[in-house]
Amino acid sequence: MSKNAKIRDEARAITAKPPAVILCEPQLGENIGTAARAMANFGLVDLRIVNPRDGWPSEKARAAASRADHVIDKVQVFDSVEAAIADLQFVFATTARSREVPKPVRGPDEAAKKAVELGETGSATGYLFGRERWGLNNEEVALADEIVTLPVDPDFASLNIAQAVLVCSYEWRKTASSGALPFILDEEEHPPAKKEDVLRLFEHLEGALDKATFFRPPERRPHMVRTLRNIFQKAELTEQEVRALRGVVASLEKRETRARKEKAEKNSDS
Amino acid sequence: MSKNAKIRDEARAITAKPPAVILCEPQLGENIGTAARAMANFGLVDLRIVNPRDGWPSEKARAAASRADHVIDKVQVFDSVEAAIADLQFVFATTARSREVPKPVRGPDEAAKKAVELGETGSATGYLFGRERWGLNNEEVALADEIVTLPVDPDFASLNIAQAVLVCSYEWRKTASSGALPFILDEEEHPPAKKEDVLRLFEHLEGALDKATFFRPPERRPHMVRTLRNIFQKAELTEQEVRALRGVVASLEKRETRARKEKAEKNSDS
Q1: ipTM of this predicted structure
Q2: Where in chain A is the domain with CATH 3.40.1280.10?
Q3: Per residue in A6-15, pLDDT tens?
Q4: What class, spelled out in words, does domain A3-176 have in CATH?
């Protein structure tokens, strides 16, 4: 898979057992599928459904899952929330509104921390999500250990369930992988320039500007030099970029670059 | 709005200017709508579209936005990415794969930190999202200041654009609001019990168990007492829960509660 050849090992180094996702009485197969895809994006695989309105299996769910077949194929269907969470050891109930239930309320990031800690010891955890229209009832929330809610805009708080699954899954993987991204700026391929080379670039540029009598009046030179050097310092130049800029300056001052000179010499030799 | 009466002020106290979201050549109106809804969930309002395949306005987008009409009504359409980002001061390009472009690569959390810092000073920032099928091309990525990618499972990395918009919007609001949740465990309504009341509960329970000769052999009493006390300590009981447990113990030891006794006395008076 050449496409994945550059993927960093850190992005795969996850040891915590991923949480289960339990959807309580979802109405639309599309939502089940989109939730499955969101889980797959972040390495979750255990999807459980309590009384799906349109039955199971669902072709709409499979289509919406967009090739997350490994999640769809393993879906378990239950006839009660109690049965769906029976083998789990710690359960979060997700809800978008305040409850009478006196239970700790966590953000998805805090919940992920707890889920990863437990998952690291092999404990089985799960996130319980409510119905599209009205979420979970208080008895269902009471079955959970803690409540998870999202830091939404209170005036537009209604989240699609697949979106809620996505944010919880994202936070879980971010925590479990210590935020390791699949790729980063490749410093081997783009090594940062050595200060020596950057200074030589500055001197080259400033020399060229001296010749072009750019610094006028001359007493402003130190200030302008600082301004210019600062611009290129901020750019955190790579070796390759320093070479490119040397070429730019040489070209603008219409001076022959070493490469051209060598080529010219080589041509005159032959 | 009684529904929102309990919303915490902290969840609304956001001073940073929210970033714009720029969708580059989206094909499906549904995706535009779902992206608009995700933005609205986290308080983003400035949606810009570059060459939407099916034109604009789009009824499909409005339906999928699920009442995020304030976002849909203000959508701006452009015929180039350059035009769409012209008034912005810092732009993130989102991409799911490594690029030749030597640009810093950030997670959505790091990007949010930068976007909020800039937004606090009133600077205009934006997140650029690519096409459903193949994202952004290298020229488009080069227009941005930094790259954002998500800590996905490298083996299932393909995110729906609305999902990518959601995660970036979520991280932005989380950072801008310092993670303030719309509601938390209401400690005014559920005040934690005073240690004095918890100790009285313990003594009540242990006294009842003494009478029932639960502690056998007696030398195991100290160990069992510690175990029981620890269970209830972990539960971080509220005042109300301590009262409920006192009632439970009284009921099990078949002793009259004070309330019943008073009622009985009152009845005998009349």
Answers
A1: 0.81
A2: 3-176
A3: 788 888 889 9
A4: alpha beta
